[in-house]
Design goal:
The protein contains five helices and no strands. It is an all-alpha fold and 98 residues long.
Length: 98
């Protein structure tokens, strides 16, 4: 199985969608966004949250590509914003020395 970083680099999404998500990520609020997207009371750790978000995003992208009536651009964008925010959290955390 691919690691998270490889999976995120392999994503190919429309430029406008990614651009909008990057702008939205500036106002990312972990508690507010994740509780709403993941339907949870307590937010998971960044890695676990990112795994769940990748799966949610894959479903939304499949709906988009198939032009399904159930596709929601705002939801897709919210998920991408959360993914960017969680990835930034993961990359900003430096491991403690042993």
């Amino acid at each position: 199985m691919q690691d998270l970083s490889s999976m995120l680099h392999a994503l190919s999404r429309p430029r406008l969608l990614i651009r909008a998500a990057r702008i939205g990520a500036r106002d990312y609020s972990r508690n507010r966004h994740l509780r709403r997207l993941l339907h949870c009371e307590t937010v998971p750790r960044p890695g676990a949250a990112l795994v769940q978000l990748v799966e949610l995003e894959r479903v939304q992208n499949d709906l988009r590509r198939n032009r399904d009536a159930g596709y929601s651009l705002p939801r897709h964008l919210d998920i991408l914003i959360a993914m960017i925010g969680e990835r930034q959290l993961l990359t900003s955390v430096t491991p403690l020395p042993d």
